[in-house]
């Protein structure tokens, strides 16, 4: 079941948003929902179906009712005490909650403004409790989703600045400076970095732009909505994301990249760095790194 969900996601990604993709999604959506809501199914199968449901709906859903029903289904999984978990706390089944929340937030990016207002009224207070999860991945994803909700609220001119916002910012500050030794060092570092960006956005409205380079092209992630979309496709495609950004017409349309570039042999050859040039670059980088480390070692020796 887990593998079938993954294959369905990739199939829908290849077929695109045309009639064929719509037919595949329409016929298999009930099965995806059934497995996702089945508490006796394996966690890996439910996780795969959560990803497939969100991605296929994003790509191929033709009816607004399909979007609303998928949002509701996914929300029931990650909400504290959700029906999909039989009332369990969000600290359990971290990967399943992550997949459901990631798919839910992906679908938020294509919601019409009228429905965004309804979601803000009904779902906003369900997100902050997820920041207390024992899963670092779920905490980070919850923080990014909160930032996305704030961004969407700005777009529809809704004001979220009420008494709960101050409490939320205080909670985010704790996560942005957390130094608990019982958490892995890499987890602490990643969490602090991301929550600093989230807190900065909530306080100033400024997003830390990121550049994604692939082949001779690049694209800019300049909003939480664009970042969520990119991360969702990257999660599915893995190391193949750059190839698809270059050649997959669906992805290029989603990210506004235009038709795939057609390069002749001469242009391809000119774009490739020769082995000798790579060697020179690596040698220079190695020397610079050695000098920098030597200076640090000298300072440590002086202190000792």
Automatic annotation (TrEMBL):
Database matches in SUPFAM superfamilies: ARM repeat
**Which keywords appear in this protein's UniProt record, sorted alphabetically?**
Signal
- The record lists the membrane-crossing segments as none
Q: Outline the extent of the Interferon-related developmental regulator N-terminal domain.
A: 1-203
Q: Is Metal-binding included in the keywords of this UniProt record?
A: no
Q: A single Pfam family, by name?
A: IFRD
Would you indicate the residue range of the signal peptide? 1-18
Q: Which residues form the Interferon-related developmental regulator C-terminal domain?
A: 248-301
Family per similarity comment: Belongs to the IFRD family.
Q: What is this protein called?
A: IFRD2 regulator
Q: Per the UniProt entry, what species is this protein from, by scientific name?
A: Centropus unirufus
Q: Which gene encodes it?
A: Ifrd2
């Amino acid at each position: 079941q887990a593998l079938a969900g993954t294959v369905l996601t990739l199939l829908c990604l290849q077929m695109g948003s045309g009639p064929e993709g719509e037919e595949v999604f329409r016929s298999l959506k009930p099965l995806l929902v059934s497995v996702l809501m089945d508490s006796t199914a394996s966690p890996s199968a439910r996780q795969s179906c959560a990803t497939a449901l969100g991605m296929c709906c994003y790509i191929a859903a033709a009816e607004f009712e399909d979007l609303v029903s998928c949002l509701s289904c996914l929300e029931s999984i990650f909400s504290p005490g959700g029906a999909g978990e039989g009332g369990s706390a969000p600290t359990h089944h971290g990967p399943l909650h992550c997949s459901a929340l990631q798919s839910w937030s992906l679908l938020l990016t294509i919601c019409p403004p009228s429905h965004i207002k309804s979601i803000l009224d009904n779902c906003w207070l369900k997100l902050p409790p997820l920041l207390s999860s024992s899963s670092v991945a779920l905490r980070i994803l919850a923080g990014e989703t909160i930032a996305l909700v704030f961004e969407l609220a700005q777009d529809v001119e809704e004001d979220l600045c009420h008494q709960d916002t101050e409490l939320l910012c205080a909670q985010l500050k704790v996560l942005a400076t957390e130094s608990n030794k019982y958490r892995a060092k890499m987890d602490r570092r990643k969490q602090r970095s991301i929550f600093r960006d989230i807190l900065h956005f909530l306080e100033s409205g400024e997003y830390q732009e990121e550049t994604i380079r692939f082949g001779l092209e690049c694209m800019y992630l300049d909003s939480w909505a664009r970042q969520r979309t990119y991360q969702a496709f990257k999660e599915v495609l893995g190391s193949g994301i750059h190839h698809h950004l270059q050649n997959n017409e669906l992805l290029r349309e989603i990210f506004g990249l235009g038709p795939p570039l057609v390069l002749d042999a001469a242009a391809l050859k000119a774009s490739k760095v020769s082995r000798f040039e790579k060697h020179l670059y690596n040698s220079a980088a190695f020397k610079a790194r050695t000098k920098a480390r030597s200076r640090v070692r000298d300072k440590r020796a002086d202190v000792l």
